[in-house]
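Render this sequence as a predicted structure.
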Amino acid sequence: MDWGMKNRLSQLIKPDGHCMFMPIDHGYFQGPTTKLEKPGETIKPIIKYCDALFVTRGVLRSCIKPEDSKPIILRVSGGTSVVGGDLANEVLTTSIKEALRLNVAGVGLSVFVGSEYEKQTLNNLAQLVNECEDYGIPVMAVTAVGKELEKRGSRYLGLCCRIAAELGAKVVKTYWCDDGFDKVVAGCPVPVVMAGGPKVETDKEVLEFVHDGMQKGAIGINLGRNIWQNPNPVAMVKSLHAIVHKKATVKEAVEIFEDTKNKG
């Protein structure tokens, strides 16, 4: 692996081998998402607890200060919206020159395995890897499932992750599942980071699935709405940080959450 690739990956994955990415790219298909209407303001109290931001070039330029930014994973796929025909019909939207100009630590895109646009999005990934390898830029593949998360279990997610790794992704972002997440991770030869999971009703459930995923081999998280849409985002991000980087138990994380919440 070239020096540049190693250097960028070291910005994203910390010396303990773990990572805490924060996605604020939701507007690229959802528009002004609740609590993310002003991304720069949303992340102010919580950014210090994350290791990297996953963001589009538009929000990066307009909302993120370049003087004290965290490492950036640049969202480079899109072209669809929640009011369009199919979220899976994505293309590459951002060039490698843009990624270099913005001095990013990595780039990310979605793949939609099993959809009508499976071949198209997997080809997007392959093309992106081909170009990024020339410049030492790691690619994170996101195993997107559109609106059908409840239908996706470990067999499907394992398939997606393995294909993404086979096509050259250096990191794969996928969903936690309760029916064999360890098998998903074991079948993927590159690091796996967790997105969300099934819909949860309590803060403790978020901490539980993240802890479970870390115990089963994930190297970290890429959680957004579970943090910045929480009524107590600082408490949530501190609790998750403790699980990811300090090996906190669920009980310890809940205590951190409650203590931070009570202190306001």
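Summary. The chain has a mean pLDDT of 95. The CA atoms of residues 104 and 172 lie 17 Å apart.
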